[in-house]
Specification:
The protein contains three helices and five strands, in the order βαββαβαβ. The longest helix is centred in the middle third of the chain and has 7 residues. About 8% of the residues have low confidence.
Length: 106
């Protein structure tokens, strides 16, 4: 099974279904279920912004399963910003991966 490694708290947010879009600079032809791996690296800015207690989150392990069902290519910032309610960061020319059917593995 494929696996996507994300920094905490992004991994937790995807596994909980609170973050349904992930942006990458590359495309993928893969569609289907994948494992969500929480890396040992922590994004302190997001913890602070979302008021998350990082001591309660699992790091360095598989924490969930999701399903990649679509990829959308952004060619300009305006298109990206039209979807900004679900996206936090913009990378020019990025590929958006849409997920659903998430659940925690605990």
């Amino acid at each position: 099974m494929k696996c996507l490694s994300l920094r905490q708290s992004y991994a937790e947010l995807v596994a909980a279904g609170r973050k349904t879009i992930e942006t990458r600079k590359w495309n993928t032809n893969f569609r289907g279920k994948f494992l969500i791996h929480s890396s040992k690296t922590i994004d302190n800015e997001i913890f602070t912004l979302l008021n998350i207690d990082c001591s309660r989150l699992t790091k360095g392990a598989i924490i969930g399963v999701a399903c990649l069902y679509d990829v959308k290519k952004y060619t300009n910032k305006e298109d990206f910003l039209a979807d900004k309610a679900e996206i936090w960061f913009f990378i020019e020319g990025c590929e958006e991966e849409r997920t659903r059917g998430r659940h925690h593995v605990r």
